[in-house]
Design brief:
The structure is a single chain. The protein is α/β, with parallel strands linked by helices. Helix content is 40%, strand content 12%. It is built from 14 helices and 13 strands. It has helices at residues 3-11, 13-20, 36-49, 61-72, 83-96, 111-115, 129-132, 200-212, 214-221, 232-241, 252-260, 294-305, 307-317, 349-367, and strands at residues 51-56, 75-80, 103-106, 153-154, 158-160, 164-166, 190-193, 227-229, 246-248, 266-268, 277-279, 284-286, 344-345. The protein has a five-stranded mixed sheet, with helices on both faces. Helix 4 links the parallel strand 1 (51-56) and strand 2. Helix 8 packs across helix 9. The protein is globular. The chain starts with a helix and ends with a helix. The relative contact order is 0.19.
């Protein structure tokens, strides 16, 4: 492939994104089944309020807004932004008593609001049998990020911290364990999403630190002179071009966009001595105390945890849903947790609030300033 041909592929990746995520949800007449009078009243009250304000990843704005309004008749005012920035805004609003956001989709930053009594309980608002029935969920139960199991509903659970290889430069079977990346031939040939900042790069480094210790991480990232980027698409492009042989901290959304455009030299491989970590991505939903449209928020919560809502999220973000009846064909197999494999779950309150800060600090100290 010539440099000009590759440039055309990279230039058209925005179009490829649309191809991956078309028709985010599918109208289904049975997702509301069994809701009875309680659901009828909630839906009526939500429609009277007219809208719900949801904050989350910008990529979710169009598919979520269109699907929810189609399925419920209630509009969505979607606020797109970086999870940490949205969490900071929500915290500021809650503390000032001027809340404009009804619900936020992201990670676990808002656990601090839960601890000071500023999050509404979501579990009591689940009305629909399709949501509350344990048999609809993997593992036989809804996954919550908080210890109380009622404030922070987690929709997806997927495998992260796998290395991405240029298959032309690193043949299958030549690297099977993490220690193989310490070989001299990989020095200067590894790129990573910057592990010194919160995000997928630090999540990958945190997994390696938890599994092998900070000395291994220092030897890998610093000793092998790993190059950092904070652009996930650039990370994958460098591997596809052959600028680097291995990438750490990549996410499936960027990998699959390149694959959809015909790039065939990208290879995700799980290591024998470290299968990866479990993340919830941007799927954790929270409701602040004082939300301006509480009835519409209740409707959204039930919809989001139902089949059409989970299909919409999963299809857009390429993350496997925790629902048993949601299996989006574009979600790659390498991010689906395998039965019988033990993973480090980073979306558990104790790990997120107690272990994660210590690990993150040790990573930044070991790898130098930002």
């Amino acid at each position: 492939m010539t440099r000009i041909q590759f440039g055309k592929i990279v230039a058209s990746l925005t179009v490829a994104t649309a191809l991956l995520v078309t028709d985010g949800a599918f109208a289904q007449s049975d997702w509301q089944s069994g809701g009875g009078e309680a659901w009828r009243k909630a839906l009526e009250a939500g429609r009277k309020e007219g809208k719900v304000v949801v904050a989350g990843h910008p990529a979710l704005s169009k598919p979520v807004s269109e699907a929810f309004e189609r399925d419920t008749g209630i509009s969505v005012e979607f606020l797109g932004g970086r999870p940490r920035e949205l969490a900071t805004r929500l915290t500021r609003e809650v503390k000032s008593g001027n809340v404009t956001i009804d619900l936020t989709l992201g990670g676990g930053t808002e656990l601090s609001l839960k601890d000071i009594g500023k999050l509404e309980a979501i579990k009591p608002q689940f009305i629909l049998p399709g949501v509350t029935d344990p048999k609809n969920w993997r593992g036989g139960k809804i996954k919550w990020m908080d210890k109380e199991e009622k404030y922070m509903f987690q929709g997806s659970n997927w495998v992260h911290a796998w290395p991405l290889f240029n298959a032309n430069l690193v043949k299958p079977g030549t690297v099977t364990n993490w220690a193989d990346l310490l070989k001299p031939e990989f020095k200067g040939k590894i790129v990573a999403y910057d592990p010194r900042f919160g995000g997928p790069g630090q999540a990958a480094a945190a997994y390696l630190t938890d599994t092998f210790g900070i000395d291994f991480v220092k030897e890998l990232y610093a000793g092998q002179k790993v190059v950092y980027t904070r652009d996930g698409r650039q990370l994958v492009e460098w591997i596809a071009r052959g600028s680097y042989a291995v990438a750490l901290g990549g996410i499936q959304l960027h990998v699959e966009i390149f694959k959809q455009k015909g790039i065939k030299n990208l290879s995700v491989r799980q290591m024998k001595d470290g299968p990866g970590s479990l993340l919830g991505g941007f799927s954790v939903i929270k409701q602040p105390v004082g939300a301006p449209h509480p009835a519409a928020a209740t409707v959204f919560l039930n919809w989001y945890a139902s089949k059409p809502g989970q299909e919409t999220y999963s299809r857009r973000m390429l993350e496997p849903s925790m629902r048993r009846d949601v299996d989006v064909d574009t979600v790659p197999d390498y991010v689906k947790p395998k039965p019988g494999v033990t993973y480090l779950d980073q979306y558990v309150e104790d790990w997120y609030t107690q272990t994660r800060p210590k690990v993150s600090k040790s990573i930044v100290e070991a790898l130098g300033g930002r």
